[in-house]
Amino acid sequence: MSSNLSSNKNNLISEFQNIDLEDDKKKGELYQPNEYLDYLSKQLMNDYAKYFQLRPTAQIEELDELLENLLTHMEEFYGLIEQIRNNGNQCVDRLSMVLFSKIDECRKLFAFIDKLEKIVNHVSIQVSLMERELSRAEKMMGAKTSTVKKLFSILTSGNQSSESQSRFRYIPQDIFKTEELLKT
Q1: How is residue 20 annotated by DSSP?
Q2: Residue 13 CB coordination number (10 Å)
Q3: Which has the higher per-residue pLDDT, 36 or 90?
Q4: Contact present, 144 and 164 (Cβ < 8 Å)
Q5: 90 confidence band (pLDDT: 50, 70, 90)
Q6: Each residue's pLDDT tens digit, 160-171
């Protein structure tokens, strides 16, 4: 085992002497293989550090640009929402004013319609009464209107006709005036 160790040490020393260092000054400083190993490990660490070293400036600039772009779009979106809200409020205000005036007109119209319904009801009652009176008069006069009875009534004109007229007396209904109904 000790022979194995000594052969490894000899191999390391021979490799150390055969190394082509970039800097001759460094070669002069490295006299022992341990120093060489320290140098190599430091060199390796520096290389790995350079490899893993992130260059955040480019990434940060890209991220800043993206954030600025997002903020710009958010401000535009907020402005659009604010404009929509303002336009909506203006439309609601305008429409509410129009609706309030239309509601007043509708109330007046509804009152007029109610009045017309009362007039139509009153006229309907009056027409029914007139039709009833007309039917009654037609029944009373219906017997007199036949052609035979007309001839006899002409021949016997005298006291009988005045008696029959007094028996079938017509009492006229009061006629309403539409102007009076509209005033109420």
Answers
A1: -
A2: 13
A3: 90
A4: yes
A5: very high
A6: 445 555 556 667
Residue 119 CB: number of other CB atoms within 10 A?
A: 15
Q: What number of other Cβ atoms are within 10 A of residue 36's Cβ?
A: 20
The first and second tokens of residue 101, run together, are 């005036």
Count CB atoms within 10 A of the CB of residue 179: 7
Q: What is the 3-state secondary structure (H, E, C) of 36-98?
A: HHHHHHHHHHHHHHHHHCCCHHHHHHHHHHHHHHHHHHHHHHHHHHHHHHHHHHHHHHHHHHH
Token pair listed for 133: 């009176």
Q: What is the mean pLDDT of residues 61-70?
A: 92
Q: Classify residue 21 by its DSSP letter.
A: -
Q: How far apart are CA 38 and CA 45, in angstroms?
A: 10
Amino acid identity, residue 77? F
Q: What residue spans define the domains of the chain? A: 1-54
> DSSP state, 176?
P
The residue behind tokens 């009534």 is 153
